[in-house]
């Protein structure tokens, strides 16, 4: 190795200041928009209903003919894609004081064409990662809400998620739910309980199929 | 009958080379860009491109040569961006060394191919065939370019120190 080559190599070593480079493969995948493959075994059919999809939630119509008008409306129409669950809040006297909406965009459910009935509600059988659910409080005009929470139906002491306390105008936020919470919500086993200026109001959380959703 | 091989590289193959030679990739990118942060960013972007376009690798040469090409091209593209006016400077805060500054300046004055051949030879320790694969030139051209680069740098050093 002659003198010039040694000099060039020295220049390289000095300029680069040694090593100290730390690879970050997860960052590479993130930039490439590639999700790392899960290492666990294939999920069961029911658990496979839990999306890992980045796309908007899809609604499949029975008997599995394919994607129909509902899907097209859901994804490409004026309505925002994604599931909406809704709990209409009723006073003990029966009048409605507003509703709470919850949205998530990473799940599949199967609903019956025509009736809009949820045929296959989400019931995960294995632990799942916490799922992000966006919620929004929609009180009727003149009604103020001081607190709202989601509890298990039949056992108001069993809290699933605290939404707000106090609750300002246009209250909204994000909650993260695991298997038990999701199971309760999708199985109509969850209530929203709200303290309002009109008293305590409650409503069962139900899935709103796109055809029945207003606005 | 030879087994059917789907074109394209696998994610696992790309990851293996990425981890094995990450320092070398960054060293060459840093030599091109004169900036460690931008170099690392360029390498990450290069591999992201490689992952996205891995089906474009048709197995015509070694996979690492294909990846080197992606890294070098990405670093060069970054260098050519209008905002990327880079001055040759030392990033490591080491003491000022006139002779090495002269060497760096001499290398910077080389035509692009000679400069790249030099980087790949001395920063990444690639052999002539590997450099040829990366730059898609003949090994003889690599040798000639390296020889010309040595001559230019030597002449410039003599010119500077005269």
Instruction: Calculate Rg of chain B over CA atoms.
Output: 17 Å
Largest interface summary: A-B, 25 and 38 residues
Distance between the termini of chain B: 66 Å
**Distance between termini of chain A?**
77 Å
Structural class of chain A: alpha+beta
Number of helical regions of chain A: 4
Give a quick precis of the structure:
Chain A has 215 residues and is α+β, with helices and mostly antiparallel strands.
Keywords:
heterodimer; A: 215 residues; alpha+beta; 5-stranded antiparallel sheet; 4-stranded antiparallel sheet; 35% strand; elongated; disordered C terminus; B: 162 residues; mainly alpha; 7 helices; 69% helix; 0% strand; globular
Task: Report what the structure shows.
The complex is a heterodimer of chains A (215) and B (162). Helix content of chain A is 17%, strand content 35%. The C terminus of chain A is likely disordered. By secondary structure, chain A is α+β, with helices and mostly antiparallel strands. Chain A has 4 helices and 12 strands. With 162 residues, chain B is mainly alpha-helical. Chain B has 7 helices and no strands. The longest helix of chain B has 23 residues. About 8% of the residues of chain B have low confidence. The chains are: A alpha+beta (215), B mainly alpha (162). The interface between A and B is medium-sized, with 25 and 38 residues.
Mind sketching the topology for me?
The complex is a heterodimer of chains A (215) and B (162).
Chain A: H1 3-16, H2 25-31, E1 59-61, H3 69-76, E2 83-90, E3 96-104, E4 109-111, E5 118-120, E6 131-139, E7 145-152, E8 155-164, E9 172-177, H4 179-186, E10 190-196, E11 199-204, E12 206-208
Parallel strand pairs in A: 1-4
Antiparallel strand pairs in A: 2-3, 2-12, 3-6, 4-5, 6-9, 7-8, 7-10, 10-11
Chain B: H1 11-33, H2 36-52, H3 63-80, H4 98-108, H5 112-122, H6 128-135, H7 139-161
Helix pairs in contact in B: 1-2, 1-3, 2-3, 3-6, 4-7, 5-7, 6-7
